[in-house]
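Minutes, project check-in
Item: structure for the 521-residue chain
Input as provided by the requester:
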Amino acid sequence: MTDVGTTNAVVEPTRTSAAGESVIKIGYHQNLTNEDLAPLKKQHWTSYNIFAFWMSDVHSVGGYVFAGSLFALGISAWQVLIALLVGIFMVYFLCNLVARPSQQAGVPYPVTTRIAFGVRGANLPAILRGLIAVAWYGIQTYLASVAFGLLALKFWPSLARFDSVDDYGFLGLSLLGWGGFVLMWVLQAIVFWNGMETIRKFIDFCGPAVYVVMVILAGYLIYKAGWSNVHFDLSSGPNKSGWASITALISAIALVVSYFSGPMLNFGDFSRYGRTFADVKKGNFLGLPVNFLFFSILVVCTVSAGATVIGRDSDGNIITDPVHIVDRIDNTTAAVLGVLTFAIATIGINIVANFVSPAFDFSNVAPTKITWRMGGMIAAIGSVLITPWNLFNNPSAIHYTLDTLGAVIGPLFGVLIADFYLVKKKQIVVDDLFSMSPTGRYWFRSGVNPVAVIATVVAAAAGIAIVIEGTTYMASYTWFVGAGLGFAIYSLGMRLLPPSFIHDNPPAPVASAAPAADVSA
């Protein structure tokens, strides 16, 4: 359970919001507090809820294509298996690290960043993560909306003329494409608007439900193709050997970690609801190593059998996009069921990974003016303005965008982990997270920790420089470069720089700063 502190101060009544029930103490500053950001009154998510969260996060259209691509790197099946296991166990370990402070204090990701960046400086990591989520939200919405367009054409072929960007296009998207995108956008907004409890119920049901349909789809394709045509080596050319296979293996591991870097960074937005940290860790284990491995095997079976049943694309490549796989199935019922399933699956991942995060992040910037719901809708509107279909249609832009995002996300992760585990020794003075007092533990210099900002900027700049000047292979490691540099620079800065540089008023040790009940450890 969360420790919201039990001082002698009068405690205000429980506040209920779309993000849950919270407790706001007398003395919490309004510029740092609202019903969505304050510590939860009760944490009730079990390990199954966390497991369902990861199920929704993994089996989307993007996840399908990503997992399939790992089996096509030119390395043998056993090497792919090793890459998957090592990569996902790294994600599991890192998620446990980032989950603890939010579960411990009962607050979302942007509030926990105040521990390292300061009560005002926390807006830097919050805005960066929020903007990244907006970009991903738009791209995922567009990917899933394609399914609705294909479904419409299957039943009403006469709509094909509205699928022309030249004749019926606006901002690079056809009229039919706009229809699917708007429909997908509205469906997600409806689920989100009903609050975290509705989201929890949605992912609790959709996680296993989508798996049922995916197993049926895989079984149907395997039955049609024959088991002899299902294999675990989808590489289009000869397998790599020697040093080339080793570098491809390491690259595959890095890709797994990078793919999950976004939801991993703001996982505290969900771990805050965890009943206990043990529940969170158990849910992470079931949802990451166990779930991802099963999902990957299911993907390769589907893609491999699909290559026999539906053939390859016009360039002779194996089709890994599940929407296009089910669209080519010569069975209307199976195709409709498959398309709708992947649309629902993408709604799940988009809400948990790219809707909830900016909702908290943007609310953190101006708590008195931006609620959790409003923050989410700002992200939803922003996802339209960036016209994600134009980004997706430019492979070069996608490459540089993803690598740049990794370069920015990595330093934030490194700073937060170094601060919580090495500097703060897992201790949180919860009340000070909502205090603008110059003597508060997280005030630093005018509300900003200069060391955290410097570490983030320097590490991110190094990662972006690699993206611009380095090779494509080097760019795939920007998350690791950023996280490592951010961790090292912050740790050394907090240890070697004088307190007068970091704080206006250097705080007293935690033990004497507040009663023991106020310290969450």
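Outcome recorded: The beta strands are 15-17, 20-22, 169-170, 173-174, 428-429, 519-520.
No further action items on this chain.
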